[in-house]
Amino acid sequence: MDKEKQVYSMLEKVYDPELDQPLTELGFIDQVIVKDNHVKVVFRLPTYWCSPNFAYIMAEDIRKYVSEIEWVKTVQVHLLDHCASDEINHGASAGKSFREVFHNVSDGDLEELRKTFDIKAYYARQEKLMKYLLKIGMSKEEITSLSLQELNELSLPEEGRLLREKYLEKKKVFHHSSTFAITTPEGKPLTEEEFSDYLKGAKLTRLSMEFNAHYCRGLLEARYNLSAAYEGSLAK
């Protein structure tokens, strides 16, 4: 694999925190420039006024994941056409925190913001998995009593395996002590009686995120006169 492809492979791990989709799929990566062992990643957002803290999370993650490549010595992050491009580009490329760069911003704690978006992503991924398990014939009782080991041992086709992988990836973020597979973000197991209302709430979160992703794609395409290559459809 050549160097540019290695960089793009790592960029697939960088998600828009609000949308829970990779920047590579959203069309937010404009270009990757590799010179010897130095990398410059140019990215763009749907509007000039996209929240600086959201943008900074993405810039931090770009630098973090690309820096993990063995041969990479430096990573320069460059956000195009944004109201805070200069601050974000200089700060993120230098490895500074959001609070160090934006001294006067009251909500400067990105960790709390990350946690909020992790919870939303957890609900969205969990809802897809729960709905899939119902589709293949599992009952509410079976799903709520399922242990992590049992979930991992389920023999599933590719679609199910991918949904399980995505959900468990996000579940690890919360370090749950419970052995139950399906829990609230706080790690509390669900009862059979709570199942339907919980699933409805998780579905609303997922649909909201998918609508926002669809909207952002449209804004990006209009702003940069792109084709509909990144156009997605809302899940029904």
What does this structure look like?
The chain is mainly alpha-helical and 236 residues long. It has 2 domains: 3-107, GMP Synthetase, Chain A, domain 3 (2-Layer Sandwich), CATH 3.30.300.130; 111-213, no CATH class. Helix content is 53%, strand content 10%. The protein has 10 helices and 5 strands; from the N terminus they run αββαββαβααααααα. A 3-stranded mixed beta sheet has the order 3-4-5. Strands 1-2 form a two-stranded antiparallel sheet. Helix 3 packs parallel to helix 4 and helix 6 (110-135) runs antiparallel to helix 9 (158-171). InterPro entries: FSCA_dom_sf, MIP18-like. Residues 4-77 form the MIP18 family-like domain. This is MIP18 family-like domain-containing protein.
Summarize the structure.
The protein is mainly alpha-helical and 236 residues long. It has helices at 3-11, 23-26, 52-67, 85-93, 98-101, 110-135, 140-145, 148-153, 158-171, 195-224, and strands at residues 15-16, 21-22, 29-35, 38-43, 74-79. It folds into 2 domains: 3-107, Fe-S cluster assembly (FSCA) (GMP Synthetase, Chain A, domain 3, 2-Layer Sandwich), CATH 3.30.300; 111-213, no CATH class.
